[in-house]
Amino acid sequence: MGVKLLLDKAHVEGIRYYDVYRREGGYRSVEKALKMSPADIVEEVKKSGLRGRGGAGFPAGMKWSFIAKPEGVPRHLVCNADESEPGTFKDRYLMEFLPHLLIEGLIVASFALGSNATYIYIRGEYAWIPDILEQAINEAKANGWLGKNIQGSGFDCEIYVQRGAGAYICGEETALIESLEGKRGNPRIKPPFPAVKGVWDRPTVVNNVETLAAVVPVINMGGEEYSKIGVGKSTGTKLISACGNINKPGVYEIDMTISVEEFVYSDEYCGGIPNGKRLKACIPGGSSVPILPANLLFKTAKGEQRMMNYESLSDGGFATGSMMGSGGFIVLDEDQCVVKHTLTLARFYRHESCGQCSPCREGTGWMEKILKNIETGKGKMSDIDLLWDIQRKIEGNTICPLGDAAAWPVAAAIRHFRDEFEWHVNNPELCLTQNYGLAHYADAREVVVS
Amino acid sequence: MAEEQKLFKVTIDNITVEVEPGTTILNAARKIGGDVAPPAMCYYSKLKGSGGKCRTCLVEVAAGSTADPRPMPKLVASCRTTVMDGMIVKNITSERVIDARAGVVEFLLLNHPLDCPVCDQAGECHLQDLSYEHGKAGTRYEFSRRTFEKHDLGPYIQLHMTRCILCYRCVFTADQLTNKRVHGVLDRGDHAEIATYIEKALDNDFIGNVIDVCPVGALTDKTFRFKNRVWFTKPVDAHCGCDKCSGKVTLWMRGDEVFRVTARKDEWGEVEEWICNTCRFERKKVSDWTIEGPTQVSRHSVISQGHYVGITKPAETIDKVMGRKPQLLMDIHTVSGVNDPNVDLSEIEGPAHSDDFKKQ
């Protein structure tokens, strides 16, 4: 049983409400933080090695220290709750069951950054969660944790919940800021970065829900202690939302010291693949990170065991590795078709491209059309190379990371599953009725049919 | 106390230029000029906030600055990246840039109809120039292109969305000219379209300028549509005493007829001074204008073809170069009886016949 810092109280009855949450030791970190200086809190977060949980894994303390502090200009903290990555649902779990944990983290972070008006930008499809959050905010306010002069410290803070309108791109921090300002959610061209010019041209920090929630244990136990959990630069705990062909889909908190193999097969976590099927592939960090075949998922190219942490998952670069990403762990068993799966993702990115810059706007649609041809048996062998060339020309040439996110899954699918693409081209009739199934990248594990 | 501002030294394609801090790479490259200047489809120096969208101006930064000489990992949009002292930029000397640019051109042309033969912009189209210079001959796209209905934006402007490459220039123009946000982008991704608020006409004295900023033929002048090809008309600089705008325009004439009035454009195809709708759409008589003289058109432009502007008589003669007089290789009249120099063709009635030459 690994350490649990975020979800340890998730199953306490009534933890959603203030009284129970406070009784279980909630808001201690705010009490502690208000006695510290803001700079000390930032220092503490830096020491903890806490990395952004939204996908990029940028050190949170570092991000906080970058915020510009011009005289007389208000600063803002924005919580990115626009969790729209296919396969990722950890923030939803946190906000639904532990809204006060997020509010607590937000108050501490607002104090550290000097934000008197803090925003939670929540995805439009999470229609019922703003009510939960607003109730928690009202409860916190009634008990003096928000509003004017919090707990007699002289610090004022308000938290506002803003609903998105259902665009994936608004999870990109500058598009989120545009949308928050009431504009069309187009990503801004950087620089200037939000730390200098964010919401209404004021210095802004945008953090993921889980990052902000993790600030609470960091303050409670101290940065030094927090950094001892986990391994190397992957400190603390990470929420993984596991889904796909596994026995126990759900949100799991791991301390980043377990292996991928253990995560997939142990009963404590995913509980193995249902119906005695074998593992074919896995996307370890949400739909935009490269897909890995089973043989590269459990072992790195060097033959070491792959662990569930930032470094180990990205070991080998994109050639033989993937990324931790946002922690959306999608498992595909032998019955899944990688081409169809890639088409689904390509369709998603085509639909969600904002249309601002040309490589992403035109390229995502093109990739989808080609993939659709291959999937429906109308593909040509040259289409596979064409797909590769298109993704190469999108990647890195766009304003925001959506272009990369659209290119990587296609690139990885071709890189690791080219034989499956070729099989689709060579068997146009068969591919409509049958799946390619497993190949050399199969998991060698013996199938136990129960 | 005149504090001397330190100039930044930036090297673009091995040519060093000194520019003021805060200049973008693109503008520094334009200072050098020629092929070094990256193409720009969406950036417009007169429009605040424009640029960064089309990705044609991508360049490679080989060294960030003297203080931090690390290269930038990704290609950067030169129109939105400011120079640093000691920056080394590779534009046409970088294969990565050429490759990425060819990709961008291909992307831009994916959904662009190849209706240049009937498009009013043909001949002065930036996308035509761009694809000619940086694109590939064929397309690898085998699917149907997206199409839209044509829309009228008021009595003078027609929007042909099918041709649009979503550069957002007209959106910035409309935003910066008008108080209300009436002109913008609907939808997203490859089905995004330029539109006005509930099909509203664009109502502003200067709104005609959206036609000039459009790099392709998506926004066209309804008073000029299908009237003529731009290369058949002759551009002439003219001015008038307009009380709304500077009155400095280019007239596009054929004979005595003014076919079209546009603002004057600089060498990068950007409008020098905005002109008002009255000048653009209503002053279509030569008597409305004071003619200044022919417009200087780049020799590479199709518009300059056949105009012979700026051609000087070569100083070299055959005598000097070859060291001999020009000589006749063959006297055609000794072998052929046709076109005998002694026969005056005008005196022959009807079409000439070989018998006509044999008579004498």
Automatic annotation (TrEMBL), chain A:
The keyword Iron-sulfur applies. Its EC number is 7.1.1.-. Residues 339-384 form the NADH-ubiquinone oxidoreductase 51kDa subunit iron-sulphur binding domain. PROSITE patterns: COMPLEX1_51K_1, COMPLEX1_51K_2. It catalyses: a quinone + NADH + 5 H(+)(in) = a quinol + NAD(+) + 4 H(+)(out). This is NADH-quinone oxidoreductase subunit F. It comes from the Bacteria.
TrEMBL record, chain B:
The keyword Iron applies. Its cofactor is [4Fe-4S] cluster; [2Fe-2S] cluster. InterPro entries: 2Fe-2S_ferredoxin-like_sf, 2Fe-2S_ferredoxin-type, NADH_UbQ_OxRdtase_ferredoxin, NADH_UbQ_OxRdtase_Gsu_4Fe4S-bd, Prok_molybdopt-oxidoreductase. Keywords: 4Fe-4S, Iron, Iron-sulfur, Metal-binding. Residues 340-360 are annotated as: Disordered. Residues 8-95 form the 2Fe-2S ferredoxin-type domain. It comes from the Bacteria. Residues 350-360 have a biased composition (Basic and acidic residues). Residues 96-135 form the 4Fe-4S His(Cys)3-ligated-type domain. This is 2Fe-2S iron-sulfur cluster-binding protein.
